[in-house]
Every structure is written in structure tokens, then in C-alpha cells.
């Protein structure tokens, strides 16, 4: 099983433009995502998949400077971006989806997900079907075949914008979810808003970027004034907005 990890990244965030290249301790957020994923045991290739919009030229340039593979595709049809990226890297039969707004993605969680996916021989595995991990520790893994089927059959705008939505909602695919021992879904370790960026900056500046996710949550509990900054932000707000305006 050869595994391709595709990191979804763009500059045109409505809530925090250019967030993936915003710097914390002299390094852009995207650097932290890539570096933490390099610490996994099973990923064979890491690619940043950005859009072909001119705003994302900076992401391609950054990847070139850092010698990170970069693929460019549709801005709005993110499913097609993933599919065309997978076609370019045709030697990989398994794909992991990570988003670039998760600078503290946990390599041990990713490895656990890969192990579960391989053992159970499913089409799709994740830790988001039932959310027990902090927001920002999200990871999904699926077969090449399942995403190719999705590209042919997915018609709704939400299914094209959100890469795995068709797989998640379709009973034809065999799926499994991993859960944390305790429900820690109340914590936010992702960056969607300026308040999120403040929280992540605090954690990295004070505790480094190599801790397990549970340690970061522990430090947030020790600093309730920091945890409160983004505690009221809704999870999956972008998905809910997409579903409301759905059309074929």
C-alpha cells in the first residue's frame, strides 16, 4: 500500500486571507503542517494541492523554494483538484486528505488511521464521522478508486467543494471511524479565524510544535483566557454554509 498525502491549501480564505502562509516563530503555518506529517511512519509522498487562481501563486512559489511537491487545480471544484492530483501521482493507491489550516496535525493519529484503514480493508476511514478529536486533528484516508467514482458521480456543489462528502454519504462505500478515548471535540487546534491564529501562535511560541494533541489541550486548560478566545467558533461552519446553498 503506497500512500499519497494531499494537503489542501489556498490563499483566498474569507475569514483569514492568506492564513496558510502566515508566520508563527518565523515559519508559515504550511511549514508546520508538512513537517509534522513528515514524522508519520507510513506516508510515502506529500503534495500540496492548491488552486490555479493567481492568488495562490505564492503557495506554489513557497513550495518550490522548500522543495515540496505542488499541484494546482480548480479553486471551487476541490474534488476535481484532488482527483487530478491523484492522477498525476498515479503510483499511489491510497490517499490521505489533510487541510493546511491544521498546523498541529498529530502524526500518531494519522498513523493510527492508516493502520485501521489497512487492517479493516475499507474504502474510507477518518476521525470525523463522529467527532471526538479536537478540531484541527482531522484526517481522512481513502482508496484511489473511491475518489475516482466520486468524481464521476458527485453532482451537488457541496460534494464538489468538500472532497469526501460523496463518499461519506453514500452507502456503497465501506467506511470506518476512529474515536479518541475521551471526547475532546470542544478544543480548537485549527485556524479559520484571527482568534484561532492567536491560540495556535500562543501554543507554538510557548510550547513548541512537536507535542501530541493532548498536551496542547492540557496547556489550553491551564490558560482559560487563551482557550476562551476561539471557544465559541462553530465547527464545520463552511460545510453548513455549502449545504445551505446546494445546487447541482
Textual characterization of the structure:
By secondary structure, the chain is an alpha/beta fold. The chain has one domain (3-244): Alpha-Beta Complex (Spore Coat Polysaccharide Biosynthesis Protein SpsA, Chain A), CATH 3.90.550. Helices cover 40% and strands 15% of the residues. It has helices at residues 29-37, 57-66, 78-88, 107-120, 144-153, 157-161, 165-169, 194-207, 213-222, 224-227, 237-244; strands at 3-8, 23-24, 27-28, 45-51, 69-73, 94-99, 124-126, 140-143, 175-177. The strands form 2 sheets. Strands 5-4-1-6-8-7-9 form a 7-stranded mixed β-sheet. Helix 3 (78-88) packs across helix 5 (144-153). The longest helix has 14 residues, at 107-120. The radius of gyration is 17 Å and the shape is globular. The termini are far apart. The relative contact order is 0.15.
SSE order and pairing:
Blueprint: E1 3-8, E2 23-24, E3 27-28, H1 29-37, E4 45-51, H2 57-66, E5 69-73, H3 78-88, E6 94-99, H4 107-120, E7 124-126, E8 140-143, H5 144-153, H6 157-161, H7 165-169, E9 175-177, H8 194-207, H9 213-222, H10 224-227, H11 237-244
Parallel strand pairs: 1-4, 1-6, 4-5, 7-9
Antiparallel strand pairs: 2-3, 6-8, 7-8
Helix pairs in contact: 3-5
